[in-house]
Amino acid sequence: MPVTVLLVDDEPLVRAGLRAVLEAQSDIEVVGEAADGAAVIPLVRQLRPDVVAMDVRMPLLDGIEATRAVLRTVPEPPKILVVTTFENDEYVYEALRAGADGFLLKRARPAEIVHAVRLVAEGESLLFPASVRQLAAEYGDGGGNREARVAMERAALTGREAEVLRLMARGLSNAEIAGRLVVGTETVKSHVSSVLAKLGARDRTQAVIAAYESGFVAPG
């Protein structure tokens, strides 16, 4: 089954460019488009895309609020990939904090766009970990988020779960973590699932953001 994608951007040329790149792949299908975040929820409910590629800045409802709305109201929500002009942007970090699974630059090369959609759909690796680390260093309170610290303490991760979270923050995939820890991939998947459940995170991106904001992992 192909990865299905909904494109949300107020610039028709951006949508057309993304559609052309993605639909050139046999394993990706663009199932719909929208010009504003306000149209996302009904389209997500109707089309059930695997991934929403969504502009972070739009006139009526921006990508941050649209992300929150989708995650709050849609059962089994899609993965959300925010699309942005600027990499080091507080809007991008706020979108990740709101629940987005990753971000993509509008100037990205076609191969990078395709890779980002596939990676976010699979959910087994962190997209652009170095950039997430830089955003956390710039906007993530330097580990001073009290709520995040309390949540991390309450999670009471085991030693192995803590190792897995640190490796997740470095961007390692499940297979790479398995190789590093000399365990099976299924064992790693079990640890990742446990980490997410204990932290109340919907995916590894949210778990990594929590790790940075709590000071559990230093973003520097």
From TrEMBL:
SMART domains: HTH_LUXR, REC
GO molecular function terms noted in the UniProt entry: DNA binding
Start and end residues of each Response regulatory domain: 4-121
Domain annotation HTH luxR-type: ranges: 150-215
4-aspartylphosphate modified-residue sites: D55
One Pfam family linked to the record: GerE
Single biological process term from Gene Ontology: regulation of DNA-templated transcription
Statement: the UniProt record of this protein carries the keyword Transferase: no
Keywords: DNA-binding, Phosphoprotein, Transcription, Transcription regulation
InterPro entries per record: CheY-like_superfamily, NreC/VraR/RcsB-like_REC, Sig_transdc_resp-reg_C-effctor, Sig_transdc_resp-reg_receiver, Tscrpt_reg_LuxR_C, WalR-like
The protein's name: Response regulator transcription factor
Organism: Streptomyces spongiae
Source lineage: Bacteria, Bacillati, Actinomycetota, Actinomycetes, Kitasatosporales
